Structure formats: C-alpha cells, structure tokens
Amino acid sequence: MSDGMRAYLEWADLGDGRRKREFQSYVRNVAEARYVMRRVLRIVEDRAKEHGLEPLVHQALLQVYGSGKGEGITVSHLANRLDIAAAFASRMVRRLEEMGLVTRGASETDRRVTIVTATSAGAEKLAAIDDDVHRYVAFLQHEIGADEKHMALSVFAFYVGLDPNSAVARAIRAETDNG
C-alpha cells in the first residue's frame, strides 16, 4: 500500500502530531483527486459545448432528467442542486424550454410551484453527450496510473463520508494492496 493511501486510510483517526507528519501524503491524494475531477469535468464541459449546451445549462438538464422517475424537479430544488439563485435557475429553465429540452408546468399539489421535466429531446441530448463523454473518459482512464486512481478514489471516499469499514472501502484497500 502506498504511503499516500495509508495516510488517507488513517487520516480520520490520527492524533495531532501524527496528522502533521502525514499531511503531505494526504495533500498529495487531494491533489490527485482534484486533478482527476478537473480532467473529467473538463471533458464533460467540452462535450456539452460541442452539443450546443453551456456547462451549467447541461448540469441543469442533468439535474432535471436525473431528478427521479420522470416526476420532474421544482425550480427552487434545481437552484439548490446547482448552488445558484432561483431566478438564475428559472432563466436557465426558460432557455432549456426554448430549446425543446424541458417543459415546465404548475405542480398539481401547489399551483404556485413550477415543476420542470425533461422532454424526450432532452433525454436524447443527454445520451448523445454521455456517449461522447464515455469515449473521452475511457482514454483518460488509460492515462492515469493505478496509484493515482487509488489516491483519487480514497479522497472521494473521504469526501462523501464512506464508512472506512464498508465493503467498498475494503475493496479500495484490497485493490491498493494488490496493485
């Protein structure tokens, strides 16, 4: 197991003195995770632009389509998911609607609330972008070494609060030990 991976795996349980000694290894893992995230996000953003969607508009469409079993999402919930103002989310929804990628209408339970749902054209646009993203990410995966993948994955696990004793965490450690 690499020093960087070991530093992450023990990070939450380290005392202050040891935490300071292991900090460089931990930061190396964070740097690797940020590098991988940035590369993947850049791929997604570039593919979205090639398909005529600005990155945040693409993210909005993803949130709308991914919001559940075709039930839609409220504009305020979309704004929350994108960490933007509701007025800005509303303008993006209007743009998506003008493009024929979403529809919006009043909620059946509260007529003051606007529900946004993706159209079949919106789903097709997302699928086309996703197909391109998969091709580019497959290429990226070959550029990143096993050690870098594990460092990034360990930090992602930390970011999302993965239980260190979970099956996924054990699998990450086992793969690292075998790599």
Structure in words:
Strands 1-3-2 form a three-stranded antiparallel β-sheet. It has 179 residues and is mostly helical. The mean pLDDT is 85. It has eight helices and three strands; from the N terminus they run αααβααββααα. It has two domains: 85 residues, no CATH class; 90 residues, Arc Repressor Mutant, subunit A. The radius of gyration is 20 Å and the shape is elongated.
Morphology call: elongated
Summing up helix and strand content along with how strands pair, one would put the structural category as mainly alpha
What's the multimeric state?
single chain
User: Can you name the CATH architecture of the largest domain?
Assistant: Orthogonal Bundle
- Based on DSSP secondary structure assignment, what is the total number of beta strands? 3
The level of helicity is over 70%
Strand content: 5-15%
The H/E string reads: HHHEHHEEHHH
**Major beta sheet, specifics?**
3 strands, antiparallel
N→C terminal distance: 8 Å
For the residues shown, what is the average pLDDT? 85
How many domains, as an integer?
A: 2
| Rg from alpha-carbon coordinates | 20 Å
The strand line-up of the biggest sheet is 1-3-2
Q: Which segments are poorly predicted (pLDDT under 50) over 5 or more consecutive residues?
A: none
- Individual helix count: 8
Q: CATH homologous superfamily name of the largest domain?
A: Winged helix-like DNA-binding domain superfamily/Winged helix DNA-binding domain
CATH fold-type name of the largest domain: Arc Repressor Mutant, subunit A
